[in-house]
Structure formats: structure tokens, C-alpha cells
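Quick entry, no commentary yet.
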Amino acid sequence: MPAIWIPKRLVDIGLINTAAEAAASFSCHCEIEYEARVQAAAKEILFSKAKIVMLTGPSASGKTTTAHKIAAALCAMGHKSEVISLDNFFKNVEDYPRLANGKKDYENVEALDIKEVNECLNDIINKDSADVPEFDFITEHRKDKKNKVEIKGGVAIVEGIHALNPKLIELVPDDKVYKIYAGLREEYAYEGIRFLPTRDIRLARRMVRDYKFRGHSLEKTLSMWTNVCDGEDRYIKVFKPNADLLFDTSFSYEICCLAPFVKTFSNALDKDNLYFQMLTSLVNKFSYCDNIQEGYIPQNSMLREFIGC
């Protein structure tokens, strides 16, 4: 089956701001488009007759919510579907690979128990069930118990940053696997020049989520971003060509929804802070976006993964 690729598009911020004047209809239109993409992905999966879906995407791409949305769509079509997080296959902390400076390399695929991933996926294909480990992120150790996942002739969706790495499916029959890469496909221009790329939008998503719900300071999120992007280039994007489907997780109205939050960060760091210029640049870009208040975001929207309920 040929891969399904969605090209990137460049949209003028002025056009987005004009649409934002009718915030209710604009947001509704964008949400309907996203749901249509979810339905289309579910149909492609069923057509492929795969039992395993490997779904990845870079940080703040919306891959986790998208995986659950596709699983729900498959269930609604009469096919049981369960989501499995690769995070639960992390090794114990003392067994993590190390960077040259001795720090733990969280982005490396070898931080996962690759052998057990393959075993679980084969169990799902052959037995329709598997005992999946559970990882405790507080202790950074595996729990003693495992969770049984059953698909009863349906589809298991495996999501995580390494999902398209061939090592995780090297013992799994190719015809039983469908691969999805989830990522933003819309960028924004000002006066004809590319102004707000997808990586900046993902940083804004992550900043808002980390600040509101994970107790992270803006400085912490910004300090991690370069390493996160380096990890994406080394471990995620190199396998993008392996995908059967490039799933678009953009919402045209999103930059106007993120704008009110990002603008409040304008004076959050002192001028002598190492990340002041990085933050100021992002705030300045979002200052060109008109505000859409979060009340226009449906409670079941994928964007709630970042902005919250």
C-alpha cells in the first residue's frame, strides 16, 4: 500500500486573524477537519488488515490523544482497540544508556526493553492479548504487576517516540503492522515570510502544558527544548519515511488559542536569564495572533491535552 503523505502548508497570519473574528464557527470547522482525519485513519487501518498500529510523533505533536481518538473511532466501527504506551517498556533507571557526559539518555531507544516489546506485539498478533509491563515514573523502576491487554480480533495502537524504530518490530510480520507519524503540517507567514514554524507551535504547546499541569517553570521547559529537538532529529524523524500515513495534528485556530497564554509569559524571565531571548522571540511571534479564548475549545478537543479542561 502506498504511503499517504500530507504536504505542509503556509498560511498568512492575517487570514487566521480574520477567521478568528468568527471564533465559534472557526473552531468548529477546525475540529470537524481533525475528526475527519481521525475517521480516515481508522478506515485506512482497517483496510490494511493490520493488528498492530505503531504511532509516533515529536514532542507536543498530540500523538497520545490522537492514538486514543483513533482507537475510539475503531471501536465505534465495531473493532475493539486498545492503546499501549511504549513508556511502560522503559528499563529500570540503572539500566538506561548514558550520554558522553554520563547523564541518562532518556531519548535513546535502548532505554526500552526492545525484546519485551517484540514479544508483547507477537502475543497480540498470535493470541489477541499480551501482558504489558507498567512503569513507575516516580521511582523510575518497573512495577511488579503487569496489565493484560486484549483486543479480541481488533487492533492495538502502540504510541511513543520510538514507535517507528524498526528494532521494536524486527520480529513482527510486516503485513500485521501499520505505521503512523503524527505531526503538525501547518505553518504561518507574515508579510509573505515564514514566521511561525511547527516547532515553535509545539514549543508553545509544551510550555503551556508544562507550566499549567506539570509544575515546570518556563526556564525548565526552555532549557530542555534543544535536547528534545536533537533527540527528535536522531531518533524520531529519521524513521518518518517508514510511515504508511502522515497524520496532520494541526488546528488552524490553535495559534489564536495559545496566544493569550504565551503573551502572559512576556515578563516571566529577567533580561540576564540565559533563555530570555528565546522566550521573547516566541512571545513576539504570538503577539501577531489575535486571541481566541479557551471557552471556544471543545472539551473533547485534542488541544485539551495541552491547554487543559
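second:
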Amino acid sequence: MKYDDYIWDLGGTLLDNYETSAQAFERTLKKFGISVSHQEIYDALRKSTDYAVDKFAGSVPGFLASYKEEERLSLEKPVLFDGASQVLAAIKAAGGKNFMISHRNNHVLDILKAAGIDKFFTEVVTSDNGFPRKPDPKSILYLVDKYEMTRPVMIGDRKLDIEAGKNASVPTIFFSSDQEDTDASYNVKNLKEILSL
């Protein structure tokens, strides 16, 4: 493996959460008397949660908090992408380290535990750490400096993950089954491909 330190995004990268989140978002909209097609919600969430909230419920008081609670409950049984556990385990077995940067709060730690992958991570950075959101590079630079990384790589499924890596001068891997990011160092359609990079 070319890299020693793998900095992961969670949702859409290791955790197949778009479908779960879209269902939770749709249920929350219905609570507030709003009807939107499932596909529209799914597509909006692929861009970002903030984008979806602004688009469908930007003027609805209490919507975000209600959605976050609905999503939290649905994530008690997280679903990982194919190969996620195996790739994390292989990196650790080869002497590498896994890290995570998530925009979610410390509830991420419960999700990782429920998914059975918490044991593979050296450190998990969440919104509770107080860093600016990606694509700001400060959270990545914090990990690079703290662990004196010389061969790190950032892995994510959205442009902001790739931009964050580039802003930190760290190589990047874009993961998506149906699209590519021309700014990323590498593009993979299956997580297992990461082990051959």
C-alpha cells in the first residue's frame, strides 16, 4: 500500500446512509405536512444535508432538530458499503492507521460501534471537536500534525472531501459507483480497490 494513514469520511463513504437518511428526511417532512418525492430528497441529500433542508424545509422551525433525531434512530442499525470492514481491517493489519473526520457530533462513535468498525480507528474527529466544516483543511491538518503523518490520504464521496484534502495538500480518493471527480488523485467504484493503490 502506498499510504500509511487513511483519513475517512463516514456517510456515503463507509456508511451507506443516503437511503437511510432519505427515508428519515421523508418521514420528517410528512410530520410537518410536506410532501416531496423520495428521489428528489435522495438527490438533494447527496449534495448535502444543509442543501436539502434549505430546499425543502428552510423556513420550517424545528425541522432540522426533528430530522436529526429521526435519522439518529434510523442509524442505530447502520449499513456499511461492501468491503468497508475488510478494507479497514486490512489497513490496520498491514500496520497502517485509520482516522475519521465527520460533520456529525459524537453520536458517530455509537454508529461506528453499532457497525462493528470502531476498533479499526485510531482517532475520530467530530463536530464536537470544534473544527470548521470541510472543505476547510483544519481538521485534516490537526491529524497530520498530531500523528506526524508522512503518507496520508483523504477518502470521501463528495467534492468537499476532495477539496478538503487538496486544501491540506493531502492526496485524495473519490469513492462513487456512478461518477468521478477529476480533481481527486484517484477514483474508485468499490472500496476494495483502495488496497491496490
